[in-house]
Amino acid sequence: xxxxxxxxxxxxxxxxxxxxxxxxxxxxxxxxxxxxxxxxxxxxxxxxxxxxxxxxxxxxxxxxxxxxxxxxxxxxxxxxxxxxxxxxxxxxxxxxxxxxxxxx
Length: 104
Description:
With about 100 residues, this protein is of the alpha+beta class.
């Protein structure tokens, strides 16, 4: 069964721009300027989304002079992927056993 922490992470990643940010950060560490160029989002909007991702534990920051670089935390994504893999395995086992709850 998925916990509230897992559903919170799903909600965080369900936003199209945040998912795009995560996808970009999976490829390389980027600063806000790079992310603005890649996504076309306004800097303030992007900063708000990055704050949500940071607070959810999906990204971490690295100061570099006057810039802040963002890096994806693979363990957060791997944990969620593991939860979905467990859910898929349970569904597979249920389908194979063909057990149905009787109706009242």
